[in-house]
Amino acid sequence: MRILVVEDEPVLRTQLAQAIAAAGHTVDCAADGAQAHYLGEVEAFDAVVLDLGLPVLDGLSVLRRWRAAGRNMPVLILTARSAWQEKVAGIDAGADDYLAKPFHMEELMARLRALLRRQGEHASAQWHCGAISLDTRQARVLVNGQPLVLTSHEFKLLSQLMQRKGEVLSRTDLSEHIYAEGSDRDSNTIEVFVGRLRKKLPPGSIETVRGLGYRLVEASATP
């Protein structure tokens, strides 16, 4: 998954980015509201962690502009503990959840996982497709109960396919979700990662839909 972290405090921003990246996600960061608004308009994110007290453009304004423009990615807002009015205003502006500062990183990650599950219609932190199991809490994949060793890009690609299993995803769709903003997004490299995944997953797990892209389907055979 690709997550946008919007936080003006450098230390907290770095801590958030590190924790989210450690869970196997691609992370982009913004330090002010104007940069956040721009990234949310032009990039594809699976979720956003958005501080409301931002310079240049406040978080509520950013959120309202995204929703007005039809940007519907899940948004977890961060508020000051005493500012209950901010929580109400954030929810009214279109936020999906909120967390008061200071907070435990474990709680933030749990709430973020819940937003991603809700978006992908997954009922739990364990995602399944035939013999493949993906644990979003531990960033771990099992095939027929055995641990699977994946590179970070292979894990991100499989996560995206798992979240939308059965759907056809183009190489462009996949590259937008596994590469951070500013990275070299050569969609041809997706073909390489798909080839590597196919060698590690049960045969037939990843189908190629000619001219459109790839989709993950259930296949129970041992690779």
Can you offer a commentary on this structure?
This is Two-component system, OmpR family, response regulator. It contains eight helices and eleven strands. The protein is an alpha/beta fold. The chain folds into two domains: 2-120, Rossmann fold (3-Layer(aba) Sandwich), CATH 3.40.50.2300; 126-216, Arc Repressor Mutant, subunit A (Orthogonal Bundle). The strands form three sheets. The chain has a five-stranded parallel beta sheet, sandwiched between helices.
Helix content: 40-55%
Largest sheet: 5 strands, parallel
Give the total of domains.
2
What is the annotated CATH architecture of the largest domain? 3-Layer(aba) Sandwich
CATH superfamily of the largest domain: Response regulator
Question: Order of strands side by side in the largest beta sheet?
Answer: 2-1-3-4-5
User: Cα-atom Rg, whole angstroms?
Assistant: 18 Å
The chain-level mean pLDDT equals 87
Instruction: Write the H/E string, N to C.
Output: EHEHEHEHEHEEEEHHHEE
> Can you count the helices?
8
- Briefly note the CATH topology name of the largest domain: Rossmann fold
- Derived from helix and strand composition plus strand pairing, the structural class reads alpha/beta
Question: Could you list the spans in which at least 5 consecutive residues all have pLDDT below 50?
Answer: none
Oligomeric state of this protein: single chain
| Extended strand count | 11
Shape: elongated
Share in β-strands: 15-25%
CATH secondary-structure class of the largest domain: Alpha Beta
Report the end-to-end length measured between terminal Cα atoms.
25 Å
